[in-house]
Structures are given as C-alpha cells and as structure tokens.
Design a protein that fits this description.
The chain is built from four helices and five strands; from the N terminus they run E-H-H-E-E-E-H-E-H. By secondary structure, the protein is α+β, with helices and mostly antiparallel strands. The relative contact order is 0.18.
C-alpha cells in the first residue's frame, strides 16, 4: 500500500453533520449512483442520521463536492457506503483522500474490519488496502424486500 492519500489543496474534510448538504447528497445518490437510484429523501435522511458521515468541501466557496457514509458500531465493524464525488472534481484524488480519512477515523475507534460493496471501483479501493473476501462462502445476505 502506498502513502495515505491527502486532500488536494483548496479542499477541507468534515464529519460535522451540520455541514452536510443533505439535499445535494440525496440528489447525487438518488439520480446518479447505481446503488441508490430512486432513494427517497426520508430514507436518505434516516441513513445519514444513523451513520458516521464524511463530507469534502471546496474551501473558498464551502460547496460540498464529495460524501461518504459509514455504518458502524465504532468498536469492531464498519460498512463503508454511499461514497460519491461530484463529477466536476473527479480525477483529483478527492475520493481516495475521503476514504482514507474515513479509514483513519475508524482506526481511531479500534475498528478492525471495514466492508464495502462496489460494482466498478475495485481498483480504486484496492489501492487503499481493500481486497476480495478471503472466504466469501462464510458470508450471507438477506434482502428484506
């Protein structure tokens, strides 16, 4: 694994829930994220309220440009999800730095396992140390549709 990615100059990261642009997050996810298309605003609000949230803002304008959410007990386990970078700033390393910051926060709690699911960004997460499950046959899921 290489050095921990850092945010480019001119961007700041926060976990302060009052700084989240929840309308923007909902718009991004419900209209442009394959895993959350059509997600209802109330569902997104509940997800945010029950999670550890990370936001990246452009320092000059304070416009939110990226988001990640972590579902965690803050002790043993975490699920990284809803990682999204606005298309206008993709390719600058913001997403990698955002995830790296989330992982550092989780390490500070003593969390030892972080899971995620991705359809198309395996290489991005592999650079941050993620790898396929060693024993996928031990994991199960239940869809409560």
């Amino acid at each position: 694994m290489t050095a921990t990615p850092r945010l480019p100059e001119g961007y700041t990261l926060t976990t302060d829930p009052s700084r989240l642009d929840t309308g923007r997050v909902h718009h991004w996810l419900s209209t442009d994220a394959y895993w959350a298309l059509g997600r209802a605003p109330a569902t997104q609000r509940a997800a945010i309220e029950g999670s550890l949230n990370f936001a990246v803002h452009e320092a000059t304008t304070d416009e939110q440009v990226a988001y990640a959410r972590v579902v965690t007990d803050r002790a043993t386990f975490a699920w990284l999800c809803d990682v999204y970078v606005d298309p206008s700033v993709r390719g600058k390393g913001i997403g990698s730095a955002l995830v790296a910051a989330a992982l550092e926060e989780l390490r500070s709690f003593g969390v030892r396992r972080v899971m995620l699911a991705t359809h198309d960004a395996h290489a991005v997460y592999a650079r941050l140390g993620f790898r396929p499950l060693d024993r996928p046959d031990q994991w199960m899921a239940l869809a409560l549709d």
